[in-house]
């Protein structure tokens, strides 16, 4: 089904949910009574429970849920579980509900959903409203004949963030959460290799650029109150792109001020936004917007989607699939 297909909640679905959970992130024994109470309160039938595995992190489970004719699919896990399940649900008309259970919970943060209240999240899943949002699709070529297509909800990136993820100790991340990235950031910052790329945005001409990092975002907020892409909206039919091109300490200082002070503090108040009107754009950080981006790199580079490493890319094409996913949000009172 393409993005042109009208999305609506099917009336012939049985009133039954499927819950796809990552057993590393979720304890089903603790969650089951909360789910049963929510489904009974809403008058729904028994929920279909589907556990992800290392071999199948959610694709087969989401397909099974669609085949079972469920009315909503609940993803209980981290950003990786959410992305995989959403990839299958894209264009189906079956809504995705979020039960945030990971470290980042990036989509939930950007939709201003409750992060640490399972009862509230499940009430939204069974009795909430559907909000259509965009997804981004990407074709990745590794330079040796391999090609993969994936969808993502929040951000794709090359450079610092992808190298950081590649250097992150998974065992430490499980114990320390986002603190595990501190060491990995240090390793990535010591890598002096720049991205050398050619790119074409929408119908524009091909441009060449050197950059430290490039990130393509469907959403703009990251954990720790970091507003990386201040103009990004999850349902505007475009993605926002940020290119980091620092030259030494001064360049990194400009980026830090821009992201943490201007985006993170000033932009959140009326007075701050007026003060921002006098600030100038800096060369170390550039913003772009568009619907389709084609990138060719001088050598294969690490790439990440929604916080998970996806190996290397020699080139890629990414585009927006507008309003192609329904997400369950709390009903307006």
| Sequence stretches where pLDDT stays below 50 over 5 or more residues | 1-13, 175-188
> What string gives the helices and strands in order?
EHEHEHEHHEEEHHHEEEEEEHHEEE
Which structural category fits the helices and strands? alpha+beta
CATH architecture of the largest domain: Sandwich
Terminal CA distance: 33 Å
- Summed up, the helix count is 10
Q: Using the CA coordinates, give the radius of gyration.
A: 20 Å
Q: Which range does the strand content fall in?
A: 25-35%
- The average pLDDT is 83
Walk me through what this model shows.
This protein is of the alpha+beta class. The chain has 2 domains: 17-127, Probable inorganic polyphosphate/atp-NAD kinase, domain 1 (Rossmann fold, 3-Layer(aba) Sandwich), CATH 3.40.50; 136-322, Tumour Suppressor Smad4. Helices cover 29% and strands 34% of the residues. The protein contains 10 helices and 16 strands. The protein has helices spanning 28-42, 59-67, 79-89, 106-110, 118-127, 160-166, 170-176, 180-189, 248-263, 270-276; strands spanning 17-21, 48-51, 72-77, 96-100, 129-141, 147-152, 155-158, 195-201, 207-211, 213-217, 221-222, 226-227, 239-244, 285-290, 292-305, 308-329. Strands 5, 6, 7, 8, 9, 10, 13, 14, 15 and 16 form a 10-stranded antiparallel β-sheet that branches. A 4-stranded parallel β-sheet has the order 2-1-3-4, sandwiched between helices. Helix 2 (59-67) packs across helix 3. It is elongated. The two termini are 33 Å apart. Mean pLDDT is 83; it is low at 1-13 and 175-188.
